[in-house]
Design brief:
Blueprint lengths: L1 E12 L3 E4 H4 L7 H8 L3 E4 L6 H16 L8 E5 L10 H8 L6 E5 L5 H15 L4 E9 L9 H4 L4 E13 L9 E9 L7 E3 L12 E3 L1 H23 L8 E4 L4 H10 L11 H4 L6 H11 L8 E8 L3 E8 L1
């Protein structure tokens, strides 16, 4: 028998306020045409008073738990991926734990920026496979609007706030065939710290004693993203014993429509098989993959039995992919 992590439910949450490109152009030297042409983004959600990374994460988690058909007390592991926690410490995951009324479980944050959800999923999967957990709540949640330089039009137009979550459960199965087996079939992660200065925040408790602002060299990040994402997706597929032709849906990090298109072309995948929400949500960093996944599950595109691949790249650089049969 093989013990695997099965996707039991998904959920997401977005701030109330939606900001269009036109509204942004009222205060930033940009235009709807300029943003759409370069990124594909038309709208983003911006957190308001009382909306935080932990509160959005809690809302997304509650919806995932409901969709999974379990209770909060069934959860014995919470991993929250974020680069914008409510506090330096304690972990935002513990705030979610308390808000959900869970008295005791393992709860911690993962910091891998836009790849954070992939890192968190892989850690949760490892703990479930080892028997250290049975029901895991994996969340990506961000309020990137609070670390943006709103005078830098090359970065502030790209990001939004939001949260996405999944519930994973342990299941024993005799099915070893990757063509039919359910659950997480493989995962592959990478990091290369030599590229720190291409995408980073210019502050931190140990250096400037401030939160800092996001800085990015967009063209260089784009070049690395297309190569790294296509490469890691192939690695994860080979690890699972599958090929890109087996994929029903690619659920990528929603950074830029041009990156998504270029990655699909590199893999010779039809654009119709790529889940895209960047036009509605912009780049929500660690939240973007679970947010896009929940959208595609709830609108009926992703169905039981479908093979999906999740992939992302973020500051660090970090990048990864996960192969999962729903």
């Amino acid at each position: 028998m093989i013990r695997r992590s099965i996707l039991l439910g998904t959920g997401s949450a977005l701030p109330v306020r939606t900001v269009s490109n036109a509204e942004l152009a009222e205060t930033v030297d940009t235009s709807d045409e300029w943003i759409v042409e370069r990124t594909g983004i038309r709208n983003r959600h911006i957190a308001g008073d009382g909306e935080t990374t932990a509160s959005l994460a809690t809302d997304a988690a509650a919806r995932a738990i409901e969709a999974a058909g379990v209770t909060a007390q069934d959860i014995d592991l919470i991993i929250l991926a974020t680069a914008t926690p409510d506090q330096t410490f304690p972990a935002a995951a513990t705030k979610v734990q308390a808000a959900l009324g869970i008295n005791d479980c393992v709860a911690f944050d993962v910091a891998a920026v836009c790849s954070g959800f992939l890192y968190a999923m892989t850690v949760a999967d490892s703990m479930i496979r080892s028997g250290a957990a049975n029901r895991a709540l994996v969340i990506g949640s961000e309020t990137f609007s609070r670390i943006l330089d709103w005078e830098d039009r090359t970065t502030c137009v790209l990001f939004g706030d939001g949260a996405g979550a999944v519930v994973l459960g342990a299941e024993e199965s005799a099915d070893a065939d990757p063509k039919t087996a359910r659950g997480i079939l493989s995962a592959k992660l990478h990091a290369d710290g030599r590229h720190n200065q291409l995408l980073y925040v210019d502050g931190g408790p140990s250096t400037t004693q401030t939160v800092g602002k996001l800085r990015m060299k967009g063209q260089e990040v784009f070049r690395h993203a297309v190569v790294n994402l296509a490469s890691v997706l192939k690695e994860a597929m080979e690890l699972a014993g599958l090929t890109p032709d087996d994929i029903d849906w690619l659920v990528p990090h929603q950074a830029n429509a041009r990156i998504l298109d270029a990655t699909a072309r590199k893999l010779k995948m039809a654009p119709e098989r790529v889940v895209m929400t960047v036009d509605r949500h912009a780049n929500t960093s660690a939240a973007s993959v679970p947010l896009a996944l929940d959208c595609a599950v709830r609108d009926g595109r992703i169905k039981p039995g479908h093979l999906i691949v999740l992939e992302a790249m973020g500051g660090g650089f970090t990048w990864g992919a996960c192969v999962l049969r729903v």
